[in-house]
Design a protein that fits this description.
Creatine Amidinohydrolase, four-stranded antiparallel β-sheet
Length: 253
């Protein structure tokens, strides 16, 4: 069932989103070649807890980190640990913060030093498709329209859309209805309503769209070993558009 948030709910969610966004800013500032993914995870955890919130991912389904840290061909759900981050890597950091009864959820893919032109193009296409989708969000728009726009944009740029994972509703629970696919057919799917809060999160591959889950049950990689990028924002549907709740800049709500 899709939940509709009140204005006071969205104010609380903006606080959760603001902390989530700040954790990504902290991660970007700390990110450097030679550090481990566990060290980067510690930066995220300390930022979130220092602001009175709890990391949404820590312990979720048994997940051991405060952030999902996914390098190069890891699409999502990379487990923080001893892996060394290297010059030329692309690193997706997916973060959630829980405070006041609500979650925020956001992800960015960062370049570590100088990366390949192919990596830059993939990251750019993925991020641009996220903002293309956000600009479409308003009451009455169908989820199929949003998914179709993300799919077309990335496929036109020569990339593929992961189909095994998708965006989702956000609220009291980290993952709520509805599913928000990054592919679809225009004119199909649920219509957005004022008060809905969704996470839009394109996961885009350099090569084939298929993925494989590793033996740890979390780490999800591209089947062909090629790069993957991931960008995400939590957005609230407003009367005539939407509000990005995981924007790092303070806004009035």
């Amino acid at each position: 069932m899709v939940s509709i948030k009140s204005h006071s709910d969205i104010i609380k969610m903006r606080k959760a989103g603001f902390i989530t966004a700040g954790a990504l800013v902290a991660a970007q500032k700390a990110l450097r070649p030679g550090m481990t993914t566990k060290e980067l995870d510690t930066v995220v955890r300390k930022f979130i807890t220092s602001h009175g919130a709890k990391p949404s991912f820590l312990g979720y389904g048994g997940f051991s980190g405060s952030a999902c840290i996914s390098i190069n061909d890891v699409v999502i759900h990379g487990i923080p640990g001893p892996q060394i981050i290297k010059e030329g890597d692309i690193v997706s950091v997916d973060v959630g913060a829980y405070i006041g009864g609500f979650h925020g959820d956001s992800c960015k893919t960062f370049a570590v030093g100088e990366v390949s032109q192919e990596a830059k193009a993939l990251m750019r296409s993925t991020e641009e498709s996220l903002y293309l989708a956000i600009k479409m969000v308003k009451p009455g728009v169908r989820l199929g329209d949003i998914g179709a726009a993300i799919q077309k944009y990335n496929e036109d740029n020569g990339f593929s859309v992961v189909r095994d994972f998708c965006g989702h509703g956000v609220g009291h629970d980290l993952h709520e209805d509805p599913e928000v696919n990054n592919f679809g057919t225009c004119g199909h799917g649920l219509r957005l309503r004022e008060g809905m809060v969704i996470a839009i999160e394109p996961m885009i591959n350099q090569g084939a769209p298929e993925v494989k889950i590793m033996k740890d049950g979390w780490t999800t990689k591209t089947v062909d070993g090629k790069l993957s990028a991931h960008f995400e924002h939590t957005v609230a549907v407003t009367e005539d558009g939407c509000m990005i709740l995981t924007d790092p800049e303070p806004i009035n709500v």
